[in-house]
Every structure is written in C-alpha cells, then in structure tokens.
Amino acid sequence: MTTYKTNQDVYQQITNRIIAAIEAGAPKFEMPWHKGANQSRPINVLTKKPYQGINTLALWIAQTANDYTTGTWGTYRQWQTCGAQVKKGEHASIIVFFKDLAKSVEKPDETESNSRRSFIATSSSVFNADQVEGYSDLDSLEIDKTQILEQVEAFIRATEAKLIESGTIACYNPINDTIFMPNRAFFKDSSTSSATEGYYSTLLHELTHWTGHKNRLNRDLLNRFGNVAYAMEELVAELGAAFLCSDLGISLKPRPNHAAYLGSWLEVMKSDKRAIFTAASKATQATNYLFGLQA
C-alpha cells in the first residue's frame, strides 16, 4: 500500500508560478512549455539525469523568466561538489520531490516481508549554471538539425501507430485508434518553428493522445476532472509534446486553437493545486511509454 504526505505550500508555490506564466502568454497563445520545449530538457549537474514531470515545467519557466542560457541545475551543495560556487545574492528556484519513507515489516509466520510505502512531498532549492562561478560545460556540442529530424521520423515509426494523412485538421480518433494528420504542405514556417518542425510537433501531440488508448496506458481523466476532462487531456498532450520536442531537439509550435481550453486550465489550476502535477505526471508516463517502444 502506498500513501502520500503532502506539503501544500510546495504545490501552491509551483502552481502559482505556472498560472502566472500561462496568463502572461495567453494573448499570443504562448504557453510556458512552448519556449521550454525549444530548450534542452533541464538536467541535474551532478547526476546528469533530466528532471521529470512538474519539475521540467517549473525549471523551464524559471529559465525563461530569468533569461538563463543553460538548462543545467543543481543544489547549493551539488554545485560545491562540482567545484563551483553559487554567486552571492542569487535566488534559488523551487522544485518538488517525493521522499520515500518505505519500511519493510516482517509478518509473523510468513516468509515474505510486507513493504509499506509512504512518500512525503517536499521542496528543494536549485540554482542554474548561470548563477554559479567556476563551472564550464564541456559537453555542449552543435547538433545537426537534419540528423535530428531523421531521428524524429525513426522515433515515430517505431511506435507503429496507425497514421493517415487526410483533411486539414490533426486529430486522434480513439474509436478506430488512428491519428489523422493534414498533408505536410499545409504546414508553414512560423516565428518559432519551421514548417517541418510544426508538422512533427503536431504529430507528437497527437501521438501523446494515442498513448491514452485503453490498450496502452488506459488514461481516464473523467473521474479526476469531471466535465473538464477533455480539456485536461489536451493539457496532457500539450505537455507530452513539449517534453518529446525537447528530448528530440525540435521546436514546439504554439497552437492558437487551444484558446478554448485556456479558461478551463486556469480554472482547474486555481481551484486544485495538484491538477498541473497530475497533468505533468500523465504526460511523463506518455513520453516514457513512447520511448519504451523504441528499438
């Protein structure tokens, strides 16, 4: 059995920042994950592992708000371990993590132990590489954009999702388990992405929807969100596409047609401080599922 103890302030702090970022970008349909997806996935300086779920979004927002040039983060002690020092007067960014308080309890007359798992949500303070002295990133390399697009194509093929190019609207139909995409010629260059990137980012959005099918992740948001479940599924797909675009190295194109969902997203987040955490978690599950299908 798994139980969770929560620090409500952690949820509220991060949710408030995301709400503010969404409201600031709403007039131009620029969501906080759009600029983030055009950056690399934030990584920890010590472990070299990417941050996951809500922390990806929180650190993207912090990077954009502060014009940081890097997506490398670490705690005060982690930077010291790497031989760097946080500059005087710098302010930390907040992330959340779940501490496992699991204990194994032996049951009398039984050979197997009963593991009772308990988690507590707490916050941690991290600093960007731009906020420290004495650190240089030796792993930064120029990336061949053509090669990246070949990798994206291979990534999509490996899922074996049924894809039909037809009509002028991109959508996923769960009844026949098919993704419909407009012809590539319908996609045009924008200020944030090329026509090619617009095509692929849209396809990755629909592919995130595809993961929710009952024969895959069986994602059902109805019990959690009621009459706004459809809007929240769109938010999951938005975040999933942003995570995938970042991981695959392509730009995410803003979707003006999501103006209809903005009100619902903000309303849910303002009334439920855990809602964005749920959406980010579901999006992470979707991206992990898709990466799991790769050769």
Any descriptors?
disordered N terminus, single chain, 11 strands, 295 residues, alpha/beta, 44% helix, six-stranded mixed beta sheet, three-stranded mixed beta sheet
How would you portray this structure in words?
With 295 residues, the protein is an alpha/beta fold. The protein has two domains: 2-133, no CATH class; 145-292, no CATH class. It has helices spanning 8-25, 32-37, 53-65, 76-81, 145-159, 195-211, 222-225, 229-248, 259-271, 275-292, and strands at residues 2-5, 43-44, 72-74, 85-86, 93-100, 103-106, 113-128, 132-133, 163-165, 171-173, 178-181. The strands form three sheets. Strands 1, 2, 3, 5, 6 and 7 form a six-stranded mixed β-sheet that branches. Strand 10 and strand 11 (178-181) form a beta hairpin. Helix 1 (8-25) crosses helix 3 (53-65) and helix 1 packs antiparallel against helix 9. The longest helix is centred in the last third of the chain and has 20 residues, at 229-248. The chain starts with a strand and ends with a helix. The relative contact order is 0.15.
